[in-house]
Write a structure and sequence with these properties.
2 copies of one chain form a homodimer.
Chain A lengths: L9 H15 L35 E8 L2 H11 L3 H4 L1 H5 L10 H13 L10 E8 L9 E13 L6 E11 L5 E12 L4
Chain lengths: 194, 194
């Protein structure tokens, strides 16, 4: 979704959702969902997968935690975001941030890992089509992050009866309960096979 | 901006921009911009930095290229997005994607590196506050990516006269000219010192 959806009517958005679903997997229909997953907070203790039919608006998920590692902050930055405030403590101290901070993309990547390891085990995997991101606060070495997720919308596809979209807000929080990343994302989710 | 801005009036958005600017750097005013930068496509050949005053709506930047490496796709995924379609060719072949694809966050990270190495050399660095992302197509090993950027809005802060926001659309394209990522981002940019 992302880019254009904000300026669109719901009808146009739904058409676009369908187009995205169409474009994303033009070669495979029905989708060969392959992963072993289990349901969270739904009184189901088996290793069931989460299908579109299992999601309801307001449903929440909480991930485990990760400690932000200074060496990884620097090595991630050296490869992907080589700016002084991500690379070197001394340079970072002289920067706008006053100290070493993680690249926003490193934060996004760590949050993704937390989600993959969490109970949000969607049949077919965690497949994001796009969304909206913000980084209200810097992520710093030593921070302990976790992700809290909430289901905002559940939208079956009208053209593809085997799938739909779950819009979620994934908020990444530090050890002080401060949001370091807020991502509202559209996830591709299969419907339960008949 | 991201999350909330799409549903807000321009006035509310501007207030929010100011709030974000305030929150992002509460400890430093004026901002100690520290980097060496140079201006692009503006008939300036010196190593000048790009300030808010240098940006105009419609201005464009083009990055260099990067070849997507299969080993990096897998190692990035092993750390940050360990799902079968990012980790292993055989498993990926059986997935919805029909072959190995890069994590969306790996694509985002590679696009960031292209921007950091490009002529978009903003005084103070490339500091994103948030934005909207989509991945219209999968990124595959062997793809040759580059980023094309366009300035969409230039907004001076009303409360902080030394800074403002440049909204850009950064489109990451593969060797076929297909967009694999579209990011509309709000960048924090300093004003030219008096």
């Amino acid at each position: 979704m992302g880019v254009a959806s904000s300026f669109m009517s719901t009808e146009t958005q739904n058409r676009r959702l369908d187009m995205e679903l169409e474009q994303t997997f033009p070669a495979s229909d029905p989708i060969p969902w392959i992963h072993e997953l289990r349901v969270h907070e739904m009184s189901v203790t088996t290793q069931d997968k989460l299908y579109l039919d299992d999601f309801v608006v307001g449903q929440r998920f909480t991930s485990g935690t990760v400690v932000v590692n200074a060496d990884e902050v620097k090595s991630f930055a050296a490869r992907f975001d080589p700016q002084p405030f991500h690379l070197d403590e001394a340079a970072a101290k002289r920067s706008v941030f006053g100290g070493l901070i993680a690249s926003g993309w490193h934060t996004a990547a760590m949050a993704m890992r937390l989600l993959v390891d969490s109970d949000l085990r969607i049949a077919g995997g965690l497949i994001g089509l796009g969304g909206e991101m913000s980084w209200p606060r810097a992520t710093k070495p030593g921070d302990v992050l976790h992700v809290e997720s909430e289901v905002l919308e559940v939208t079956p596809s009208r053209s593809k009866p085997d799938r739909g979209i779950v819009k979620m807000r994934n908020t990444t929080l530090n050890q002080h309960g401060e949001a370091v990343q807020v991502a509202v994302v559209n996830m591709l989710v299969p419907r339960k096979p008949a």
